[in-house]
Amino acid sequence: MTYMIRARLRRDAVGSDGALVKLVADNALAPGKRHDLVWTLFSDGPERDRDFVFRMDEDAGRPVVTAYAPRPPTEDARRLWEVWHKPFVPKLYPGDRLRFSLRVNPVKQAGNARIDAVYDAFDARRKAAEAAGETVPDRLEIARDVGCAWLDRRASALGLEFDAQALEAEAYRTETIRKPGGKRFTLSLLDLTGLAEVTDPQRLIEALPAGIGKGKAYGCGLMLMARA
């Protein structure tokens, strides 16, 4: 069983949880700690591995989490979160048209390294434009092109066919993640919206709870869908 979950940080949490609410509401929580916050919804023991995908947004200054998980949040989590959940049992058929929203980590492999595909494409286009004396392209336009290619490579495995004309890059940003021990790396985040047609319903239903692409521990890979 897979559940679709929406949770919003409570305003009336008390004790140490109340301190955490203030910490988050003051935007003092580092991006790399989002997973730790979301983990309070699902952790039921020290041996539990992450088995959910999520994205975090904001509503009136409070973090809002949407997630796919194989179990509902723990009862203890309700001290910190307002929680809604329901079984994820969509009824889909070939040819269904869906609207989607997806936050991805748009990386590509370059030898043994993963690089930001949006920045790499923008840098190449910028250099070419400057050499030709032309205007540097808009970064979101390039992000849209990169996102379109990124999705096309995954379309068959997702059981979808994406409408390239309807795809929009809503936002692109980078964040510095600090890991234990002081190590840091840059995480790129690309928000895509658009339309898609279902080609293989079962493949899509199985793929969504697993998440799409890299960066799942940092809130990437969850695709939200609704009928168009």
From TrEMBL:
Entry-linked Gene3D superfamilies: Crispr-associated protein, domain 1, Crispr-associated protein, domain 2
Superkingdom of origin organism: Bacteria
Record InterPro entries: CRISPR-assoc_prot_Cse3
Stretches that traverse the bilayer: none
Pfam families: CRISPR_assoc (PF08798)
Protein name: Type I-E CRISPR-associated protein Cas6/Cse3/CasE
Species this chain originates from: Rhodovibrio sodomensis
Protein's gene: cas6e
